[in-house]
Design a protein that fits this description.
There is one protein chain. By secondary structure, the protein is an all-alpha fold. The chain is 52% helix and 0% strand. Helix 2 packs across helix 5, helix 3 crosses helix 4 and helix 4 runs parallel beside helix 6.
Length: 179
């Protein structure tokens, strides 16, 4: 490697890690899974800025993206002393008094499902697929568990059987082979 290549490598990729806005677990996924995960970053079009879907999307972004300031990913849906501020990756809930953010986020998830008729179904279908991927593939146990439970709730709401991780992986691999 020439000195110029080394400087470029170090500048764009750091010493050993890909310089990316995405969390490390994302890069370990099949390309098809990565493209699906990208489909919910934007959120739904045409909904009020205070719609409950915005709180789900903010939590989703925290589980997929890293803060642009280079700090570690914030894998809790509320602000703490080192939380991410702003509306793009801001908190979805207040600090839970019970100490377990799962309970409070479960309420947000149920509120989202109660309001799903006010959303474009296209967005909702993307969110279901994205929550499936996070629920099976995220590298943080708490995050993975929450998204898996949310995925199952979404599938049940549509009277669908949740697809297993093995079936999802097989579908992605077959689709990749046929591309």
């Amino acid at each position: 490697m020439t000195s110029i290549q080394f400087v470029i490598q170090k500048h764009f990729f750091g010493e050993n890690e890909l310089n990316s806005i995405f969390q490390p677990w994302f890069h370990k996924q099949e390309l098809i899974a990565q493209s699906i995960v990208l489909s919910c970053i934007r959120g739904p079009d045409g909904v009020d800025r205070n719609h409950i879907a915005k709180r789900i999307v903010n939590w989703y972004r925290r589980c997929v993206l890293k803060p642009v300031d280079g700090s570690d990913a914030v894998l809790i849906p509320y602000d703490n002393t080192e939380g991410v501020s702003g509306s793009y990756m801001g908190p979805s809930i207040n600090i839970p008094s019970e100490g377990d953010w799962h309970l409070t986020m479960n309420k947000v998830g149920r509120q989202y499902l109660e309001s799903v008729d006010s959303l474009p179904f296209h967005f909702h279908s993307h969110l279901i697929h994205c929550s499936q991927i996070l629920g099976y593939k995220h590298d943080d146990d708490d995050v993975r568990q929450w998204w898996n439970e949310f995925y199952i709730l979404c599938a049940n709401k549509l009277h669908l059987k949740a697809e297993s991780e093995v079936k999802m992986d097989t579908r992605f691999q077959e689709r990749s082979k046929n591309s």
